Amino acid sequence: MDKKSFGKSSAVDTYTIETKTDNKVPLIQVNKGHVENSVKEILEYIGEDSEREGLLKTPNRVARMLDELTSGYHTNPEKLINGAIFSADYDEMVIVNDIEFYSLCEHHLLPFYGKAHVAYIPKDKVIGLSKIPRIVDMFARRLQIQEQMTSQIADFLSEAIGAKGVAVVVEGSHMCSMMRGVKKQDSKMRTISMTGDFKVDKDLRREFLNQIPAP
Fold this sequence. Notes:
Distance between the termini: 36 Å
Strand content: 25-35%
Shape: elongated
CATH topology of the largest domain: GTP Cyclohydrolase I, domain 2
CATH architecture of the largest domain: 2-Layer Sandwich
CATH superfamily of the largest domain: GTP cyclohydrolase I, C-terminal domain/NADPH-dependent 7-cyano-7-deazaguanine reductase, N-terminal domain
Strand order of the largest sheet: 7-4-5-8-9
Largest sheet: 5 strands, mixed
Number of domains: 2
Helix content: 25-40%
Radius of gyration: 20 Å
Number of helices: 8
C-alpha cells in the first residue's frame, strides 16, 4: 500500500490515507504532436484528404480533446481533495445523487456517459460536497470500463475518509453498443459497488437504493 499524506487546514485534523495500487495516478500527459500525426494517418487510411479545409485542424483538435478527456491520468488526488476532509460529529448516511459523468470505453475509444450516485457513512470525518463529483470525474476521465470505474470510486472514497461504508451506483449509456455492434440505443448499464457497512448490512443497502432515482 502506498501511503499519501494529505495536507491540513485549521478545520482539518492531520491524517494519512492509503491508496491502493490500482488507484495510483500515473502522472502522464498526452503527447499532442504524436497524436496529431497519428490522427492524420488515420484520416488518410480511411480515404480522406487530411489537407482539405474541414479536416485541416482536426488532428490538433483531437489531440486537445484527448488531453481533456483523459485528464484523470494526470489528476493529483492530494490536490483534488485539497484538505477538504473535516471532523464532524455525524454518523448518518450522506448521499449525492445524479452526478453526471463522461468517459471513454477502453475497448473502442467510444464515449459512455450517465450518472453516478454515491453514499457514505462517516466515521468522525466528512468530505466537502464538491469533492465527490470531482472524484467521479477523476476516474471517469481515463480509458475505462464502467465496472472498474464504479469500484474505483467506492474504494478511493472509502480510503480517503475512512468511512464506515461507501456505496456507488453508476448508470451508463454506451456508444459502443448504441452506434455499432448490437445497436441497441435504449439499453443502459447499471453497476454497483459497496464497501464496509453497505456490503454486510442488507437493510442499509436497501435504504440507499431506495433513496436514488429509479433506472
